Amino acid sequence: QFFISSAFFQDGIRQGMEQGMKQGMERGIKTGIEQGMEQGIKTGIEQGMEQGMEQTLFSQAQKKLQKGKTIAQIADELEVEPAEIERILREHSVK
């Protein structure tokens, strides 16, 4: 006849729960880090693209201004709102 003491049984349950929690936390941390890195890369790419497009608009707008074009003409040619051209010129001229 085999007898398992309740203390031995409870200790096994406790150890199993601790191991399960540890593994769950490790997986959660690993998953969180991976998701964080993926999101960071995605955000970085998006921001880089936006900055590149804005830098291109600034460069084009600046050249057109030097040719004597108005903000309205530049905005029309670059297919953006005049306020956007004004903002880009103002922000990039300060840098």
List the SSEs and their pairings.
Layout: H1 6-66, H2 71-78, H3 82-94
Helix pairs in contact: 1-2, 1-3, 2-3
What does this structure look like?
The chain is 86% helix and 0% strand. With 95 residues, the chain is mainly alpha-helical. The mean pLDDT is 88. The protein is rod-shaped and about 95 Å long.
Q: Mean pLDDT, nearest integer?
A: 88
Order of helix and strand elements from N to C terminus:
HHH
Which structural class should the secondary elements be placed in? mainly alpha
Q: How many β-strand stretches?
A: 0
Q: Shape, please?
A: rod-shaped
Largest sheet: none
What separation lies between the terminal Cα atoms? 85 Å
Evaluate the radius of gyration.
30 Å
Helicity range:
over 70%
Note the beta-strand portion.
under 5%
The number of helical elements comes to 3
Uncertain parts:
none
Short description:
The chain is mainly α and 95 residues long.
Any key phrases for this structure?
mainly alpha; 95 residues; single chain; 86% helix
